[in-house]
Amino acid sequence: METNRKKAMPLLLVGGFALLLFIIEAFSVASEKNWVAKFDLSWIERIRGSIHASMTTMIEFLTDFGSAEYIIVMTIIVVIVLFILRKFVVGLWFGGTILFCGIVMNYLLKHFVERNRPPQTNWLIEESGFSFPSGHATATTVFYGLAALFLIFTVRKMWQKIVIGALGLVIIFFIMYSRIYLGVHYPTDVLGGFLFGIASIFISTGVYFLVRKPLQQLLRKWRLNDKSIVE
Question: Are 149 and 201 in contact (CB under 8 A)?
Fold first, then answer.
């Protein structure tokens, strides 16, 4: 149990810090602080300075890999596979985190802040709903970030951990970039989604290390032999 606490505390601290940054940014967006407009304008000029038809077609296709619909389908597939492998605790943790943090909480936060999207004349695709935080950025960060973090704890070699972490970040940053490029989000929208996603996965993983053994013991009482990692 002491080993689990040692693993959990750094994760909870990182997650708490990311959550604090998100709260500060959300407050700044809601109160229309000057730095928000400057930050958005600066990054919009950099990302949308040169738009090409061929690149737009590719980004329109790839951005859907961060949509809520795609993430939900992929999550269901992953959870089913984990359940088949009798990794019930990991499956419940993975699916529950993505559903609650990546989908439900994002929806509630959007309707709490109620930020309108950028002017529709600049959109390259059709979108609806409020803007902050970006649903694509949140769902992508939670899904791919959580999967990457789980794999990082699973593999033993440092180069494998680095490759997994780098690949996860590349996917997340690309989806964030795509939402700004397509004109449907402000840069602070995707930054907010990223910060909330990071907070979600680190806090959730910290909690997982604290509760996984009690959950396994509970499942055994129900005659379910859980094979999730217990080290």
Answer: yes
Task: Give the mean pLDDT of 123-138.
Answer: 90
Tens-place pLDDT, residues 51-72: 888 888 899 888 888 888 899 9
- Looking up tokens 């019930």 gives 88
Determine the Cα–Cα distance for residues 139 and 55; give it in Å rounded to an integer.
23
CB 127 within 8 A of CB 146: no
**For residues 191 and 173, what is the distance between their CA atoms, to the nearest angstrom?**
10
> What does pTM read for this prediction?
0.89
Beta carbons of 111 and 130 less than 8 angstroms apart: yes
Question: Per-domain residue ranges for the chain?
Answer: 2-46+53-221
